[in-house]
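Q: Could you write out the predicted structure for this multi-component system? I'm mainly interested in how the pieces pack against one another.
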Amino acid sequence: AQKITQTQPGMFVQEKEAVTLDCTYDTSDPSYGLFWYKQPSSGEMIFLIYQGSYDQQNATEGRYSLNFQKARKSANLVISASQLGDSAMYFCAMRDGPRGTYKYIFGTGTRLKVLA
Amino acid sequence: GAGVSQSPSNKVTEKGKDVELRCDPISGHTALYWYRQSLGQGLEFLIYFQGNSAPDKSGLPSDRFSAERTGGSVSTLTIQRTQQEDSAVYLCASSLGGRTPLSNQPQHFGDGTRLSIL
């Protein structure tokens, strides 16, 4: 069965430092997409970055990059030059296609706190 | 509007009452999802609609929960005989729902309905 695991319930990082949020996944489907979302305390879910299973290069979006290690089934989010506004919950999600359902599943999230 | 719209934003009701939560997805999005998020927790999948296919109801916690999507657009999540454990934020999301999971089709979320059962 598909599964997303985020093992870090909470993380702290000093402002301007880089931080890595871990995500491992399990799927038997060769075709899948991986997503990261940010949820600030205000509650909205904000899409950050996407990685397709056949993408040759790691995805990058501004200060966000995805460390995709397919053999290890990991898709860690790296935030460079952390800012106070990065304090939020971060969710890893996967979309794959068993039986054509193509639905998303989410991890339990990591709460990031950026320290001044 | 341009985004996913959910109503009401807040709902307070007494235990045992029925509630209806509404989601209006982004125009053209064929996939629609309902999630439940308890305070400080992750997203619990409830139900997924994709075009005209039969919905995936595998996440509905009990037969008190049901959802429908009329005309492939607006969706209503109904909770009958509400219990205190139903208190949570109910999030709706939509996406283009293409036939391959490889495409960069993120979900777009509404602001949620905060449901409180007294």
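A: Regarding packing and overall arrangement: The two ends of chain A are 41 Å apart (CA to CA).
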